[in-house]
Amino acid sequence: MTTFRSPALAETPADITARLLELDRPCWIVRTDSGTVAATTDDWAAGARGQVLAAVPPLPAQRLGDSAFRAAHGVRAAYAAGAMANGIASPTLVIAMAEAGYLASYGAAGVPPLAVDAALAEISGRLGDKPFACNLIHSPSEPALERAIVDACLRYGVRCLEASAFMDLTAEVVRYRASGLVVNQQGGIECRNRLIAKVSRVEVAELFLRPAPVRLLRQLVESGQITAEQAELAERVPMADDITAEADSGGHTDRRPLLVLLPELIAARDRIAATVPGAAAVRIGAAGGIGTPDAAASAFALGAAYIVTGSVNQAAREANQSAATKKLLATAQFADCTMAPSSDMFELGVQVQVLRRGTMFAARAHRLYDLYRAYDGIEALPEQVRKELEDKLFRRPLADIWQECVSYFTERDPAQLVAAEGDPKARMALVFRWYLGLSSGWSIRGAADRLADYQIWCGPAMGGFNSWVAGTYLAAPEHRAVADIADQLMTGAAYLTRVAQLRAAGVRLPAECARYAPRPTEE
After folding, report:
1. Helices (H) and strands (E) in the chain, counts
2. Residue 28: beta bridge partners?
């Protein structure tokens, strides 16, 4: 068996980078007799060939973050692909990530219950015991959707739920958590249904750091959805196993800076742990704006237990997104994003972050929300405004759109129609949500006649990613595989962490060594 031994000293920037990229070996930085800086992974050469300036220990990419995250979820790295709604985070994407040893969340938000059921059947059938997650988005205007997703997850034994956009706890998210609580052989509480809560506010994080509210547990017991024993156990454990600090991300976001949000959530966790001991074990991860190795390394340096990517995966081959949209995403720059009214929380004025470049969706969605606020119903709209909407935006009479809404919600959530029956403003909201809801579907399908109406959820991470991969094999969307993106980001984060450690020790490396470029795995 041949033992690999690096050349004694590497003095060129390319060779120093190569030594630092041997992540599973220590690396010494020395000053040679000629005064140049060199790197070596040979301990004998380090001591014999020059003055040792600093050294860094091995740092495989799998060692970044919290080992408890890897153990709890059964994955090889503290990295997850977050859910992208409308099934953009597709079964194919989830399966590819799981087979590569990563966690990924199926994008169930906005997907009809029957399609969610079929997707979970496909994923669980292909993966068996390999871990994956399903997204549960807070749907205050459509509680039946939350119920349907939880029902499907329990039916298929999905052991991890990614809860997003919650402003308060609901009976359904509590039902999922409590349904998986058992007493193990050692007498401790085993949480078989793991929960990852994605939040952007401390007050929401606190809800998940504490046990489920007694009032909700009581309701669930009385309705026979959980047992009295499960309710008692739920009063003794936090709602979540992991909390993701969602910073400036695509889709639902408060656009919080990660540099502020992540430390705030870690501090909140530690504060609450003083009175809720179980909260101490809740891991705090980072999401939003993570599209480069530099961003990933920064998140881990801030104390993130794990990182979550989203926007960058939308342009991957496995994402359920059209080629036209992936092309737009691949040309986006970090400033090409804006906010627009959301479909699922339209009446509340909640907004989502979308791609601005190449589409007029954001401006048109704002126009609809302004009309919703200004008028009491479709019938109250001025004739000229109504004609403009029918001719340019909806391209059909608004009365026809309403009939489509009736058919849609009769199957999806009849309670919406009951609420709108005597409320013209509620009917107008459903009609306007027709456009907001279909716009993402046009993007997914690549509807050529609706290019200007594409709703593409996107955060600044996409632009950062495109700048990072420019001129490399990952520049073209057809070369972007979701697991390879994960590998490259984590490898780069580990490499740049070593560079930062050397800088902290006072070592000045050549500028070329401060950047990690994607490298095909075959190299």
Report:
1. 20, 16
2. 40, 55
CA distances from 369 to 103, 307, 348, 366, 436 (A): 36, 34, 10, 5, 10
Nearest residue to 296 via CA among 487, 84, 67: 487
Please state whether 224 falls in left (phi above 0), alpha (psi between -120 and 50) or beta.
Answer: left
pLDDT of 414-472, one tens digit each? 888 888 888 999 999 999 999 999 999 999 999 999 999 999 999 999 999 999 999 99
Residue with tokens 């939880």: 150
- Percentage of the chain beyond pLDDT 70 is 97
User: CA-to-CA distance for 122 and 127, rounded, in angstroms?
Assistant: 9
Tokens representing 92 are 């194919």
Task: Select from 142, 147, 221, 215 the least CA-distant residue to 178.
Answer: 221
Helix axes 91-99, 482-504, angle to 10 degrees: 50
Joined tokens for residue 54: 């600093």
Bridge-based pairing of strands 103-106 and 133-137 is parallel
Residue at token pair 């997914």: 444
* Average confidence score pLDDT of the chain: 93
Strand partners, 340: 352
DSSP codes of every residue in 170-238: -HHHHHHHHHTEEE-TTS-EEE-SEEEEEESSHHHHHHHHSPPPHHHHHHHHHTTSS-HHHHHHHTTS-
Q: Could you tell me which residues come within 8 angstroms of residue 114 by beta carbon, excluding any fewer than 6 positions away?
A: none
Record the pTM: 0.92
Higher pLDDT, 172 or 143: 172
CB 386 within 8 A of CB 473: no
Tell me which DSSP letter residue 392 carries.
I
Cβ–Cβ < 8 Å for 390, 371: no
Pairing relationship of beta strands 160-164 and 133-137 according to DSSP bridges: parallel
**Are residues 40 and 46 in contact, defined by beta-carbon separation less than 8 angstroms?**
yes
Please state the three-class secondary structure of 276-337 as a single string.
CHHHHHCEEEEECCCCCHHHHHHHHHCCCCCEEECHHHHHCCCCCCCHHHHHHHHCCCCCCE
Q: Write down the residue that tokens 């955060």 correspond to.
A: 459
